[in-house]
Amino acid sequence: MSSLRSALLARCATALFTLVLAAPAAAQSDFSNGTTRDAGSVTKANVTGADMAGMAVSWGYANGSTGAGSWSLTQAGYYAVRDDRMTLLFESTPNVTTNTGRWSVFLAGPASTTPDLSWIRLNGGSVGVAFDCGWVPLRGCATTGDGGNEGSEGSAGSGLGYSFQGDFSDTDATARAAYTNAFGLGGANPVGDLYEQLTITFSRSGGGGLEGGDSFSFTADTDLLDGGAVAVPEPSALGLLTVGALTLLGAARRRQIRR
Predict the structure, then answer these.
(1) Rounded distance between C-alpha atoms, residue 148 and residue 160, angstroms
(2) What SS3 state is found at 63?
(3) Is the alpha carbon torsion for 108, 113, 118, 121 positive or negative?
(4) Gyration radius of the chain over CA positions
(5) Gap between the Cα atoms of 36 and 44, Å rounded
(6) Is 81 exposed, middle or buried (0-12, 13-18, 19+ CB in 10 A)?
(7) Strand partners for 57
(8) pTM for this prediction
(9) 3-state secondary structure 205-232
(10) d(CA 27, CA 175)
(11) Long-range contacts: 244-247, Cβ < 8 Å, 24+?
């Protein structure tokens, strides 16, 4: 019996090791509730570049310099944000949605004089946009790719979510996405599939990130929300606010009695 059990354990370990090797480690995601946000509801699941106009975007380079801008329409007719080194854009074809379209990052070269791009952060809450992950029943957000019509999707109309997935054919860098600040809808606790911010971090063997002259494409799904992004106080903060309000109320009553 012990030899059979050992054999089964060995087979399971081999199968798990094979799955780990097969997983696209260069396109994984992490999910954190962070500061909980609240919005009324999902109003649009098929979001275009125009729907995200005004979204705050920031980025940083390996030399410590940073940049920031707002998602806007360019003279070339597509929505993007950029500086003199980096351009982040969404599909230039009108009416393509984030459910099916691709985001692209271009870093001006040459690599010898352009610092590597280390990270990009998209703050959807600045314009009432949520990043919608691919929800997997009983497991939560898929680390990459699509999920099922579950989570907030089934009850709030956000449709089929799709977690961050990258195309690394034009770079030797890898990327990891972090979804932070979960949204709850209509005062309910967050399900865990809608997030305010998406941060993409680039890395390369030997150090650095996305190299000058490289390009990188990825898929990330977004939804539009009704009610914007209102921070929900943590339980401890709520307690302090309650105590403070009761203290003020008591003081006011004592003043009235003295009069």
Answers:
(1) 6
(2) coil
(3) negative
(4) 23
(5) 21
(6) buried
(7) 69, 122
(8) 0.78
(9) CCCCCECCCCEEEEECCEEEEECCCEEC
(10) 6
(11) none
Beta bridge partners of 32: 180
DSSP secondary structure code for residue 48 in this structure = B
| pLDDT tens for the chain, residues 1 to 259 | 445 444 444 444 433 333 333 334 456 899 999 999 999 889 998 899 999 999 999 999 999 999 999 999 999 889 999 999 999 999 988 889 998 899 999 999 999 999 999 999 999 998 999 999 988 877 888 888 776 555 564 445 666 788 999 999 999 999 999 999 999 988 888 988 999 999 999 999 889 999 999 999 999 999 999 865 556 655 544 444 444 444 545 555 555 555 5
Answer for the pair 38, 230: CB distance below 8 angstroms, yes or no. Answer: yes
What SS3 state is found at 199?
strand
Q: Six-digit token pair at 71?
A: 């998602």
Query: Exposure of 143 by Cβ count < 10 A (0-12 exposed, 13-18 middle, 19+ buried)?
Result: buried
Tokens of 34: 């962070």
d(CA 156, CA 93): 28
Q: How far apart are CA 203 and CA 28, in angstroms?
A: 13
Q: Which of 166, 126, 137, 161 is nearest to 29 (CA)?
A: 166
| Residue matched to tokens 């029943």 | 137
Give CA 146 to chain center in angstroms. Answer: 14
CA 28 to CA 194: how far, in whole Å?
17
